[in-house]
Amino acid sequence: MRIVIIGAGFAGMYAALSAARLRDIQGVSPEKLEIALVSPEPTLVVRPRLYEPKPETLTAPLQHVLNAIDVVYVQGRAEAIDTGAKLVEIVAAQGARKKLSYDRLIVATGSRLFRPNVPGLAEHGFSVDQLDDAIALDRHLHQLSSRPASKARNTVVVAGGGFTGIEAATEVPSRLRAILGKDAELRVVIVDRNEAIAPDMGAGPRPIIQEALRKLGVETRLGVGVGSLDKSGVTLSSGEHIECETVIWAAGMRAAPLTAQIPAERDQFGRLLVDRELRVPSVNGVFATGDAARAACDDNGNYALMSCQHATRMGAFAGNNAAAELLGVSTRPYHQKAYVTCLDLGQAGALFTRGWERTVEMVGDVAKKTKQEINTVWIYPPKAERAAALASADPERVTSL
């Protein structure tokens, strides 16, 4: 028997850990139940941190952890899924192709930044979505120091006033001053089509966010969108032109394209609709998890968000349940009633809220300390010690806040 997991992000990593945990509890050998994880590299990219400097350092190795729990790593990119034949076609780095059969498939392919057909975006826009994108942005920011000082050089426009956009925008001033000098006259502008900043955060946290932006000198243009980009800067839908040499696109996410190969219903973000055990109901033997799945967190109408907080726990339930079906033991319905947010606000600190109503619990330096602990400890892989690694993947305990 074989479980194939596509993706080495938070959901894929915890799916592998949790499936291996249940296999170990049931006393089943790795030869009888093989768990295979497919990914281009055996590393976890810590995507929540890609707005920070030195993004090339924001990865964590997984090979030793996978070895410790007897999970087979398959290097390559999953390019095609045949759910009828239960086969995954994998393309290796050198272009070699092979097919891997499965008894249970876990789609943990994550999400990608939504890039609409805005004129000039592909040529002139940057992002902090994927590791390569973040590295390209960091390289560009450092290259600004070699250019003549100008308003355009010192101006950054961030398209998107949600979680990612705010974290990117509030980190930019310190990043640029480290490159251009502490006395550089900087301008950072957030552009968002919504009438309020941080639309998903709600009215409670918003004044704190607005005060942080004011403190950092970050401007906002709300109720307008980006019409086009060119070498001179950004033209907004209102007609306003902002001269700038740096545009960071942070306006929306979609499930990774591979989910479209599963013949099942998807939501407006491309996520596969799953049941409470994270199965794709209409396709035999397929589970979806993390950003690839639209899953109910509770019985109150709350659904998992595209976040590592939800992906880790969803991954643990998906891995457990895929293994449980093959081993003939009871599955566990996914649930995640606890929900917190911790929004980085650069040198203005951070904002920590609890619950779907986003009740503010911590602000400023206290919240910043928690954010740093989340970013440097909580979301990293467990140690490559078999017992500890398996123990970390109890679905009922993962991301229990």
Explained architecture:
This protein has 401 residues and is of the alpha/beta class. Helices cover 27% and strands 26% of the residues. The chain contains nine helices and 25 strands. The strands form eight sheets. Strands 5-2-1-9-21 form a five-stranded parallel β-sheet. Strands 11-18-12-13-14 form a five-stranded parallel β-sheet. It has a three-stranded antiparallel β-sheet with strand order 6-7-8, with no helix packed on it. Strand 15 (226-230) and strand 16 (233-236) form a beta hairpin. Helix 1 (10-25) runs parallel beside helix 7 (308-327). The longest helix has 20 residues, at 308-327. It is globular, with a radius of gyration of 22 Å. It starts with a strand and ends in a 10-residue tail after the last helix.
